[in-house]
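Run log, item B.
One chain of 209 residues. Sequence copied directly from the ordering sheet:
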Amino acid sequence: MMRLARFIFILAAGGAFLAPLCAFGHGAEFLSAKLTLLPDAEVLLEITADYGENPMMADEAAAMEALADPVRIRQHDALIPLSSLGPATLFQHHNWEDYAPAAYLPTGGEGEAHALITSSWRWRSEEPEIVFEMQKGKLHDVLLWTQDASHPEAPPKWMLLLAGDRSRPIPIQLAPWWRRWMAAAGAGGLALLGIYFVSRNFTLRQRTL
């Protein structure tokens, strides 16, 4: 019923592009997913839930449940859970400004503080693009927005993901070609060194027999 009322409100207001502004009570209904694109193919994903006077998220436990598996990474035909990237870093705070685009900050009553929990993952992408997907049946919509660390002055790009939605491909900052070449050369050198020691040990054993 709550989602139906929200959908009717969005249509009456003029379309889905107003969806991020739709919040009931003091807390933001949607999860804010900030994707920071870092050099050398590194990315930082910070997903924030607001459980302060939020009828869609009753308490801290509900916020933690919403952050447990909010979106997944689409890789070819597989959906990769964020948990496969390693344990998330969790922290509580009251600062919406750093975790949602300025134009879509939830508003609250005077003197009221948001109760926020942010879950973050940082990893180096092996793919040149990242695609996120929400599984069907998810209750909390996700406002996914990107910030390029090399161009912090550029306005963020955002999209609203509903249950079953897939994001557009997000290109990452690949490492310079010479750095990728050096990394490949280093890996090849280590492999050759390993082969040399294995061969040397095998030869010594043959001599002692």
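Observations after the first pass:
- The chain is about 25% helix and 25% strand.
- The radius of gyration is 23 Å.
Flagged for discussion on Thursday.
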